[in-house]
Amino acid sequence: MKYPIRILAITAALFSMGLDWFSTGPQSDLDSYWQGERSDSTVVVDHQIWQQLLDDYLVEDESGVNLFDYEGVQESDELLQSYINSLAATDPRTLNRAEQMSYWINMYNALTVQVVSRNYPVESIKEVGGSLFASGPWNDEIVSVTGRALTLNDIEHRILRPIFNDYRIHFAVNCASIGCPNLAPYAYTSENLESLLSKGAEGYLKHERGVALLENELRLSSLFKWYGTDFGDSQEEMLETLGKYLDEELRDQIINFDGDIEFEYDWQLNDLG
Known about the structure:
The protein is α+β, with helices and mostly antiparallel strands. Helix content is 34%, strand content 11%. The protein has one domain (13-24, 46-264). It has nine helices and eight strands. A hairpin with a 2-residue loop joins strand 4 (143-145) and strand 5 (148-150). The chain starts with 12 loop residues before the first strand and ends in a 9-residue tail after the last strand. Residues 1-19 have low confidence and may be disordered.
């Protein structure tokens, strides 16, 4: 199925390369409660249910954007809930580092699928949950692990980012939107973690919604405005980081670019329907 990508400049803004470096997204703010790990642990978390759901409802579209059948997965809500329950019953601090990182990425993505599917049909995840002062479900408490209620923002910004300190996390957690890096077709595990993180980064940055060089303008995903400091201490360092995943010619053009940067993000649901 050919999916028409619509790049919506919902969060678009123009910035000069000469401006001071800044970030406008949620800050990385460690919740030290989750910092523990067992480097000697041989426990392997079972993600087979999540893999089954990905096999059944994820479509790798020829557009380069992975689409999800949110309407279809409603029929498997009990199965999805059983998977989330199995994760919630595990104390991730008893896992080794790779198992722990995989645990949190899969938890985040499974919860995102669930919150959208339970509120489907919607045109954007931003229509789901939220409060008087914020849209979207990211600050809603939607799961409890070791008796502690967690939000999606807790998982991403208080656990994953500060504990693992890996910018590729931004290419692994999925916000159910066209502008977002793809929901991976495979469950993350300690064995495929490194490979999937790198593939996620490369796939997004080589797609026009991640990086696009026009005649006099560099267009980047708003991810690199919101979380730019995760990719480098300056815009120059950020562009060097992104360039690692690009073809040589485009990499050189990006690194040496001295014009305006336009940041864009498409919040349209990555829906198969």
